[in-house]
Each structure stands twice: as C-alpha cells, then as structure tokens.
Write a structure and sequence with these properties.
It contains 3 helices and 2 strands; from the N terminus they run αββαα. With 70 residues, the protein is of the alpha+beta class. The longest helix is centred in the C-terminal third of the chain and has 10 residues.
Length: 70
C-alpha cells in the first residue's frame, strides 16, 4: 500500500485498524461524525474509541468475548 500511495493523497476506509497504522492522519468516524483524529500513536495515547477498538482487535482469540455468552 505504501508503494502505491507514495506522493499521493490516499483515502482508505477500513474497519481493520492494522491497515491504518502507518497513515499520516486517521479520522475515527462514528454515527457519521468524526469523533477522533490523529496519528495511530496519538489516538492510542488518547485512550478513546480508537484505543478501545484497537485493543479489542488485537486481543488474542482465546480472550475475545463469545457471541451469545452471558
């Protein structure tokens, strides 16, 4: 991706945060509104919605909640 985006403005829309880690700017959109904006490192440090989704996606499979489990 870096090779194709070099010297170009590139817009990536993704639910998979690992695809966005090297972006210059990340806009976290929820309900049609930008709720957080920054680099990967800035958004992790902020500790908001991006961080929560990041932690959920990177959690080992055996620690993820099981659908329908109470």
């Amino acid at each position: 991706m870096k090779r194709f985006a070099r010297d170009r403005v590139t817009l990536i829309i993704s639910h998979r945060l690992s695809s966005l880690m090297h972006a210059d700017q990340i806009l976290f959109v929820e309900g049609g509104r930008i709720v957080e904006r920054g680099t990967h490192e800035e958004l992790l440090a902020l500790g908001g919605r991006y961080r929560a989704l990041h932690d959920l996606q990177l959690r080992p499979d055996d620690e993820r909640p099981v659908a329908g489990a109470a």
